[in-house]
């Protein structure tokens, strides 16, 4: 586990460190850091490692710990003892002012531990898992017992296609395909094209396909069924999450978990399915003046969506403190054991059953816009989407022409797509809300029989507690996450080599609670992968209140490692900044919910035939898991799109009738 003191990627042209790395492959770490890390973070790591090559650089970064009694009196970093190197890392991690070393340390630490806990042998095992009490059922289901893939009838997995087979597959699905020589593309005609298959896109596809429209759904991720899902953290992060679950805000303060597979956010959602709070609906209806959220149509939509929805420590701690704890509706059956599965695709099944076609491994490049000469108020008219397969064997682009185009690729990708397409509204990409999260933990020894099981067993999120203000307003929501050892080690604070070992050995009996706030601060996403975000002072206070309550709950439930004089200790608990912030203490925030970057009323698409049906249209944060809110909003919007298309169809028929 002393990986950090050995780390030295050859890709960075540093050869001064010894090569007796047993725990991690340094080339693997370097490659992952290059592909997934922030560019400026990678530059900081490279700079630190370059500075450690000569003695002068070692002296500047390591101080007196590199002194020697022998000439030339300063040791190179590779010659410093492991004990002192551990102390050097401790100094880097707690440095108040030398942000360079702290940021480099944070990046190296995260990627090293990720590789350490996700690497597997030919039997899909990791020798460290036994030491931390972690075990997964990695046995593959035999082909005899494997269920039919629910979306197979409508899926075209472009990564397995060629130019010839793609055209054939599209034609077999009832789509008209022609070759556009001018654009060097295949032109595909349909009624509706939807970019993204997540909570909003799936609902929109189902509603529009059931109304008789020929629907195409574009998804840059791949299609997996529960039978094909290995539960292994490494492959799962890489295949199911945007940027392999290493998507960070530009300042490195917050790690953002966003779906990147068929089903999008609904495929990785931690089962929690909560209706939009009444107070939020009232705010959106009255303050933001959006009639939809005060209508009976929206209430009906939530009921329809919720009909599709088929933790010990948190509950026990709350009950002992006399706090209210609520059950969380889940999108899984009552007796279902969750473990580390989070998959829901029922809306997409409906869409496919009604003739929708889903193209996977296919990324939208831009919307096809032309000047609108129809006399209507909007300046542009959207004719469809220009897309490309991620498979290099498909040499031509895909020019998808449609009557209606829907962007449903989420709050992080819809704004960049609209901006790339030439839409100019300055509000596009602004007002991004992230539901910032901080974690608290408590260790429960095996001797505590009343707290059964292990960390990774049981339901994912079954209970929640609202932290209320004196005005009876929700300040924070406390819930229980699901975290494997790799995910936990990346988020876990590193104090020293010995401390990290001790903490990870207790993994299976360490319970985590998180404090989630409805953020007032906001961010911006104008280009793919470049996200800026700033917490407001109120957000920090609410996170702090949530963390303190989470620690009280853990202690009340019987945790033995969260402090002795609890109330005195709680007064010191705060929501600190990230590794690039000034101050001795820092932490990594997390976000699993992204909302509001193309909100209703502020960023109405200035193109006829172009609509948005994802979390980006929400006016601001919901304060709870937004899946039901996104699906209900998409349901209402897509129903209105159907009405609009029917009116236009009727108008065209009447014009033809009068002419004849």
Short description:
This protein is an alpha/beta fold and 660 residues long. The model is unreliable at 1-22 and 330-344 (pLDDT under 50). It is found in: Membrane.
Describe this entry's structure for a reader.
It is built from 21 helices and 22 strands. Helix 3 (39-51) crosses helix 6 (99-118), helix 9 (199-210) packs parallel to helix 21 and helix 14 crosses helix 19. Helix content is 35%, strand content 16%. The N and C termini lie far apart (81 Å). The strands form 5 sheets. It has a 6-stranded parallel beta sheet, with helices on both faces. The protein folds into 3 domains: 3-119, no CATH class; 155-223 and 276-304 and 342-431 and 597-654, FAD/NAD(P)-binding domain (3-Layer(bba) Sandwich), CATH 3.50.50; 312-334 and 434-591. It is of the alpha/beta class and 660 residues long.
List keywords for this structure.
single chain, 660 residues, alpha/beta, FAD/NAD(P)-binding domain, six-stranded parallel sheet, six-stranded mixed sheet, 21 helices, 22 strands, 16% strand
| Assembly level | single chain
> Kindly state the mean pLDDT as a whole number?
83
- Rg, nearest Å: 26 Å
Structural class: alpha/beta
Number of self-contained structural domains: 3
CATH topology of the largest domain: FAD/NAD(P)-binding domain
Number of strands: 22
Number of helices: 21
Percent strand: 15-25%
Function: Long-chain fatty alcohol oxidase involved in the omega-oxidation pathway of lipid degradation.
Enzyme class: oxidoreductase
Keywords: FAD, Flavoprotein, Membrane, Oxidoreductase, Transmembrane, Transmembrane helix
Protein name: Long-chain-alcohol oxidase
């Amino acid at each position: 586990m002393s990986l950090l003191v050995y780390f030295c990627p050859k890709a960075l042209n540093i050869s001064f460190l010894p090569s007796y790395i047993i725990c991690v492959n340094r080339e693997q770490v370097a490659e992952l850091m290059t592909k997934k890390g922030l560019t400026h973070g990678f530059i900081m790591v490279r700079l630190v490692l370059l500075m450690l090559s000569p003695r002068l650089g070692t002296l500047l970064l390591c101080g007196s710990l590199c002194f020697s009694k022998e000439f030339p009196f300063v040791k190179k970093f590779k010659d410093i003892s492991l004990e002192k190197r551990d102390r050097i890392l401790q100094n880097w991690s707690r440095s108040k002012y030398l942000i360079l070393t702290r940021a480099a340390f944070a990046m190296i630490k995260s990627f090293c531990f990720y590789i350490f806990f996700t690497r597997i042998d030919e039997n899909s095992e990791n020798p460290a898992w036994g030491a931390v009490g972690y075990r997964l059922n990695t046995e593959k289901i035999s082909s005899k017992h494997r269920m039919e893939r629910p979306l197979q009838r409508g899926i075209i997995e472009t990564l397995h296609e060629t130019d010839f087979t793609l055209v054939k597959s599209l034609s077999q699905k009832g789509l008209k395909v022609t070759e556009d020589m001018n654009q060097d593309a295949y032109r595909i005609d349909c009624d509706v094209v939807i970019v993204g298959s997540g909570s909003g896109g799936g609902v929109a596809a189902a509603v529009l396909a059931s109304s008789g429209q020929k629907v195409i759904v574009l998804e840059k991720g791949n299609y997996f069924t529960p039978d094909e899902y290995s539960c292994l953290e490494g492959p799962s992060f890489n295949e199911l999450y945007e940027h392999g679950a290493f998507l960070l805000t530009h300042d490195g303060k917050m790690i953002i978990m966003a779906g990147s597979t068929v089903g999008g956010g609904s495929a990785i959602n931690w089962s929690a399915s909560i209706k939009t709070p009444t107070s939020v609906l009232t705010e959106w209806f009255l303050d933001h003046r959006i009639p939809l959220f005060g209508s009976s149509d929206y209430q009906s939509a939530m009921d329809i969506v919720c009909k599709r929805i088929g933790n010990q420590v948190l509950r026990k701690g709350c009950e002992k403190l006399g706090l209210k704890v609520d059950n969380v509706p889940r999108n899984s059956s009552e007796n279902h054991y969750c473990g580390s599965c989070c998959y829901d695709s029922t809306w997409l099944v409906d869409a496919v059953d009604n003739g929708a076609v889903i193209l996977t491994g296919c990324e939208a490049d831009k919307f096809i816009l032309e000047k609108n000469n129809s006399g209507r108020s909007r300046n542009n008219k959207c004719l469809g989407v220009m897309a490309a397969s991620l498979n290099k064997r498909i040499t031509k682009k895909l020019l998808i022409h449609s009557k209606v185009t829907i962007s449903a690729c989420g709050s992080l990708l819809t704004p960049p797509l609209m901006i790339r397409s030439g839409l100019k509204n300055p509000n596009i990409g602004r007002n991004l809300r992230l539901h910032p999260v901080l974690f608290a933990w408590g260790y429960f020894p095996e001797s505590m029989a009343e707290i059964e099981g292990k960390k990774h067993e049981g339901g994912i999120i079954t209970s929640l507690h609202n932290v209320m203000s004196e005005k009876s307003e929700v300040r924070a929501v406390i819930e229980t996450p699901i975290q494997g050892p790799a995910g936990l080690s990346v988020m876990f604070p590193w104090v020293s080599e010995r401390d990290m070992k001790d903490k990870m050995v207790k993994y299976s009996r360490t319970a985590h609670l998180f404090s989630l706030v409805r953020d007032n601060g906001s961010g911006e996403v104008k280009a793919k992968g470049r996200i800026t975000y700033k917490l407001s002072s109120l957000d920090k206070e609410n996170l702090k209140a949530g963390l303190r309550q989470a620690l009280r709950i853990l202690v009340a439930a019987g945790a033995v490692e969260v402090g002795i004089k609890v109330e005195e200790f709680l007064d010191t608990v705060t929501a600190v900044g990230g590794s690039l912030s000034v101050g001795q203490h820092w932490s990594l925030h997390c976000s699993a919910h992204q909302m509001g970057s193309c909100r209703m009323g502020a960023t109405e698409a200035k193109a006829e035939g172009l609509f948005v049906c994802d979390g980006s249209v929400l006016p601001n944060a919901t304060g709870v898991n937004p899946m039901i809110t996104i699906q209900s909003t998409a349901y209402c919007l897509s129903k209105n799109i159907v009405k609009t298309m029917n009116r236009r169809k009727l108008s065209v028929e009447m014009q033809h009738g009068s002419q004849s």
